[in-house]
Design brief:
It is built from ten helices and ten strands. It is an alpha/beta fold and 267 residues long. The chain starts with a strand and ends with a helix.
Length: 267
């Protein structure tokens, strides 16, 4: 569904953020990108939808080469790639409903979007999505009245209303407390399963990645150091990706958190 071929990004400073990355992601698979700061995780996600232009290499989405598209053709292809941001990227003065509907801007004409006159089918879908994430009752609230977890849920709805084939998720839990982080990761994975979406989640929290995703890609200095299932993240592998640390404690933490979630769900 998504294929990267020898993807390279070298900045004007000479820093090479990505080094000939080859990657293939089938339809419906949710994977996590892990690695230390500066490993190239955010750059990789942004090269896929060309918010950052790759230096060389190719990106294919469902057989279409994105790296060779004109600006106009790229705008149409971006409809198929929903983006969820670390800092939410909401318009603070707009309502929750208006922020969700902004995900349809690529589908409606200029004047309709300018006047915020969206088709009733889009409004109905926005309400369905907000209900799914537990925010239907907050549709008319301004975005600046929401908590961090609520803002992230609005961002998820905005991405999903595009009806994408792929979700690109950049540090969705970085600004959230541990409990809300688990709720957001669980919600993203559940929605991907319900809709058959593939997703790439850039995340720093190794334990969260181990708990929720099907596949983990470990980056170090712009190169893939690990590609496999979460239970393949042994202490030796984590040391290769991040350096020396007591990784046994991290692996045990996953089990403890899973027990906490089970207890919480039963209450």
């Amino acid at each position: 569904m998504l294929r990267l071929e020898k993807l390279v990004k070298t900045y004007k400073t000479g820093d090479q953020a990505l080094k000939a990355v080859d990657l293939e992601i089938p339809e419906g698979q949710v994977l996590a990108l892990i690695g230390p700061s500066g490993a190239g995780k955010s750059t990789l996600i942004r090269c896929i939808n060309r918010l950052v232009e790759p230096t060389s290499g190719k990106v294919y989405l469902a057989g279409t080469e994105l790296t060779g598209l004109s600006a106009g053709a790229l705008r149409k292809e971006r409809r198929r790639m929903g983006m969820i941001f670390q800092e939410y990227a909401l318009v603070e003065r707009l309502t929750v409903m208006e922020n969700v509907l902004s995900g349809r801007l690529g589908y409606v004409g200029f004047w309709r979007s300018f006047l915020r006159k969206f088709p009733q089918s889009d409004v109905d879908e926005a309400f369905r999505l907000l209900d799914r994430v537990g925010l239907a009752h907050m549709a008319d609230k301004r975005a600046d009245e929401l908590s961090g977890g609520q803002r992230q849920r609005v961002g998820i709805c905005r991405a999903l209303i595009q009806n994408p084939a792929l979700l690109l998720v950049d540090e969705p839990t970085a600004s959230l407390d541990p409990k809300t982080s688990r709720q957001i990761m669980r919600l993203i994975c559940e929605l991907c399963k319900e809709r058959g979406l593939a997703a790439i989640i850039n995340i720093h929290d190794v334990a969260l990645a181990q708990m929720f995703v099907q596949r983990v890609i470990g980056l170090r200095f712009g190169a893939v150091e690990f590609d496999g299932p979460p239970d393949g993240l042994t202490p030796d592998v984590l040391t290769t990706i991040y350096g020396e640390e007591d990784w046994e404690a991290t692996i045990e933490k996953v089990d403890d958190e899973e027990i906490d979630d089970t207890i919480e769900a039963a209450q």
